[in-house]
Amino acid sequence: MSARENSVHGSSVYSVVEAASSLSDEDFLAVVRAVVDARPSLVALRASLDAAQSPQPAHLPEIIVEADEIIDAPIFYATEPRIPEPDYTEGGVPTFDRVREKIEGRVGTSIGSAELAHESPAGKSVDEQWDERQKAAKAKLEEIRRSMGK
Fold it and tell me: Is 123 in contact with 117 (CB distance < 8 Å)?
């Protein structure tokens, strides 16, 4: 954009802002709504306009309670004892069954993850490398034994 086009564009924006400032809120919202309706990419602005034009909630009068009125209602404290979970004692300590189940679950998870790792392509290649090294070690040991026996 050239300097001349930028100054023309800037002055036209300025004149639009100046004209919009003289409008009432209702007229300004009507102008903005007309512009937004013609541009589908401004959907978020349309939602804001709809929220701005929705009717305001009715103002409720303040309710005053006289000092000599007594309201009798039960009081519930947040510190009331809660019902313990079935796997815990009243003091919140886990039972032996709960601890055993947790340990068994962790052992099962550990065994399962080891089996899955062993069955993966990387795990199989490690096994193959181990087998090759074992065979090579046995062959080298036999070679050493033969050379010592001769």
Answer: yes
Q: How does pLDDT run across 82-105, given as a tens digit for each residue? A: 665 678 888 888 889 889 999 999
pTM exceeds cut of 0.85 = no
* Distance, CA of 11 to CA of 99 (rounded, Å): 76
Angle of helix 96-119 relative to helix 121-149, nearest 10 degrees, comes to: 70
Reduced 3-state DSSP string for the chain: CCHHHHHHHHHHHHHHHHHHHCCCHHHHHHHHHHHHHCCHHHHHHHHHHHHHHCCCCCCCCCCCCCCCCCCCCCCCCCCCCCCCCCCECCCCCECHHHHHHHHHHHHHHHHHHHHHHHHCHHHHHHHHHHHHHHHHHHHHHHHHHHHHHC
Phi/psi zone of residue 31: left (φ > 0), alpha (ψ -120 to 50 degrees), beta? alpha
Give the residues across from 119 on adjacent strands: none
d(CA 137, CA 46): 77
